[in-house]
Design a protein that fits this description.
4 iron, 4 sulfur cluster binding; LytB/IspH; isoprene biosynthesis; 4Fe-4S; Cobalt-precorrin-4 Transmethylase, domain 1; 3 domains; alpha/beta; binds iron/sulfur cluster
């Protein structure tokens, strides 16, 4: 059974129509109006892989396909996949026995995997390989009897998944302030790991404070904050000091998008706002603004950024300069459960261009 491939090329929320009065309402500013567009921005390799996994599952197995939690933290992506037959659930006990469920890019704890097995569910694990790497570190250090200080936001799905690998050995550190008060069993057998989508600077501050108290605290074998998070923050750090306003395209529950907004302010942007869609941009934000910084979180299709650019052009910000701080060419192979099916079906396509741009069909 096959289904039509999902297209993420058009937003599902209509844009607010701009009138000449709207445009005139934006106060004139001295100097040329321009947009500094961050690069890299938008889709990372883990999001790309997870979204394609759901698309390919819909195409090859047919709707409905169940997905535990939001496949990635982006409203547009989730709503578009829902329209095509994906059903998002909070827990596997909401999935009918024997049905197919996809685990999201943020990862799951072993308890969730067991629960799916117990219910006879077929699964596709779309956990980002860089999250899986952190899970493996947690398992390995717990096995060697280390206590793990997991820097991250309690309640975030990724943190729940990593914590669930070794709950007896793990404590969550939510903030630099918590580093000052946390109590450990043995200060000489201690390692820190982290959520992949945190602020690089704030995490380093948390580690600094932890190390002040526990000098023998070990570092992870390699960075847990992923390349996509670091690169997007580096790009906005370069833009922020020149920006009167930074707009971040991304959803409220997207950790890396919210961090981009915070980082922009820390690095000198006069104002910073997050929007899911261009029609959420408030025209009052443009008052007195000559330079807009624009970026997007790692789960955001490029089409949504282009919508904001079009809107900005209507207000006179037609000059766009891309500020490139890194090139990204990472691509992850699809989940193994899916690869076998695609091979059998002779499907060798991944169906995606760069940065979440879909080929038009
Ligand atoms: S933000 Fe990083 S860890 Fe998360 S899905 Fe993207 S590449 Fe993977």
């Amino acid at each position: 059974m096959t289904a039509t491939p999902v297209s993420l090329s058009m937003p599902t929320v209509p844009r607010r129509r701009r009138t000449p009065e709207h445009v005139a309402a934006a106060a004139p500013v001295a100097g040329a109006k321009k947009v500094l567009l961050a690069a890299p921005r938008g889709y990372c390799a883990g999001v790309d892989r997870a979204v394609i996994a759901v698309e390919k599952a819909l195409e090859h197995y047919g709707a409905p396909i169940y997905v535990r939690k939001q496949i990635v933290h982006n409203r547009h992506v989730v709503e578009t996949l829902e329209e095509r037959g994906a059903i998002f659930v909070d827990e596997t006990d909401e999935v009918p026995e024997g049905a197919l469920v996809v685990f999201s890019a943020h990862g799951v704890s072993p308890a969730v995997v067991r629960s799916a097995e117990d219910r006879g569910l077929r699964t596709i694990d779309a956990t980002c390989p860089l999250v899986t790497k952190v899970h493996r570190e947690a398992v390995r250090f717990a096995k060697d009897d280390y206590e793990i200080l997991l820097i991250g936001h309690e309640g975030h799905e990724e943190v729940e998944g990593t914590y669930g690998e070794a709950p007896e050995n793990t404590q969550i550190v939510n903030s630099p302030q918590e580093a000052d008060t946390i109590r450990v069993k043995d200060p000489d057998k201690l390692i820190w790991l982290s959520q992949t989508t945190l602020s690089v600077d704030e995490t380093m501050e948390t580690v600094r404070r932890l190390r002040e108290r526990f000098p023998n605290l070990q570092d992870p074998p390699s960075d847990d904050i992923c390349y996509a998070t670091s690169n997007r923050q580096a790009a906005i750090k370069k833009i922020a000091p020149q920006a009167d306003l930074v707009i971040v395209v991304g959803s409220a529950n997207s950790s890396n998008s919210v961090r981009l907004m915070e980082v922009a302010l820390e690095y000198g942007a006069k104002a910073s706002h997050r929007v899911d869609f261009a029609n959420e941009v408030d025209e009052s934000w443009f008052e007195g603004v000559s330079t807009i910084g624009l970026t997007s979180g790692a789960s955001v299709p490029e089409v949504l950024v282009q919508d904001v650019l079009r809107l900005a052009a209507e207000y006179g910000y037609g000059t766009v300069e891309e500020v490139v701080t890194a090139d990204e060419d990472i691509l992850f192979s699809l989940p193994k459960e899916l690869r076998a099916t695609l091979k059998e079906a002779g499907d060798s396509s991944r169906g995606l261009g760069g940065r979440g741009q879909r080929p038009q069909s």
